[in-house]
Design a protein that fits this description.
This protein has 218 residues and is of the alpha/beta class. The chain has nine helices and five strands, in the order H-H-H-E-H-E-H-E-E-H-H-E-H-H.
Length: 218
Amino acid sequence: MTSTQAEIDQSYSVSNEFFQLWLDENMHYTSAAWDDPSWTLEQAQEHKARILYDFAELGEDKTVLDIGCGWGSAIDCMVRFGIKEAHGITLSTEQLRFCEERGLPADRAKFWLQDYALFNPPQKYDGLVSIEMIDHLCSPAQARQGLAVGLYRDYFNKLAEWVEPGAAFGFQAILRNRVPRARKDLEDLAFTADIIFPGGLNPRIEELVVAISPKWEL
């Protein structure tokens, strides 16, 4: 089934100190973007945050929601880049604690421990950002049952209700492009899905292209 809070905590609430051992200084969890090979990890992660900020067409007069905000690193960047207000939701108790301990201005940054499917936004946003949260929407078992596109479409349709008309969505995902058939590939997938990211699965690009319609344009 779609990842539960207990499964998210298994993946992300091991301890914030554990993740601080190997993430960048600002606690970005996902793929960075190097335009210059001489950049540090910190510079490449900040650049990634800037790319998503631009994709969402944000600015100093805009509001944004980060769905699956992790340790609040993207919101930290957006506050520094210039944003009227940035909100974030996560299902990890430890991530929420870290977000709140960042000490970001309370009038510009807010965080909630919340499942997106149950979230009632306090306002309509000018833009959205989500960084690899979609990996937790469809489990391998659900994908085998042919449920992936429907789950992703429910997600995109719901998010479309949270924004002003014409809003943009800065979206990042890890994609898979083949079905594992070899025993070793299946064992690796099972380990990742059952131990590291219980209930999680990377989407296929064609599933997302179909699922965004009719609420979003690619």
